[in-house]
Amino acid sequence: MSFERVAIIGLGLLGGSVGLAVQEHLPGVVTSGFDADPAVRRRAAERGLTAKVCESPQEAVAAADLVILCVPVGAMAEVAREIAPALSPGALVSDVGSTKQSIAAALGEALPNHAVIPAHPVAGTEHSGPDAGFASLFRHRWCILTPPADADPVQLDALAAFWRALGATVEIMDAAHHDLVLAVTSHIPHLIAYTIVGTASDLEDVTQGEVIKYSAGGFRDFTRIAASDPTMWRDVFLNNREAVLEMLGRFTEDLTALQRAIRSGDGEMLFDRFTKTRAIRRSIIEQGQDDARPDFGRKHDAD
Amino acid sequence: MSFERVAIIGLGLLGGSVGLAVQEHLPGVVTSGFDADPAVRRRAAERGLTAKVCESPQEAVAAADLVILCVPVGAMAEVAREIAPALSPGALVSDVGSTKQSIAAALGEALPNHAVIPAHPVAGTEHSGPDAGFASLFRHRWCILTPPADADPVQLDALAAFWRALGATVEIMDAAHHDLVLAVTSHIPHLIAYTIVGTASDLEDVTQGEVIKYSAGGFRDFTRIAASDPTMWRDVFLNNREAVLEMLGRFTEDLTALQRAIRSGDGEMLFDRFTKTRAIRRSIIEQGQDDARPDFGRKHDAD
Question: What is the reported pTM?
Answer without folding.
Answer: 0.94
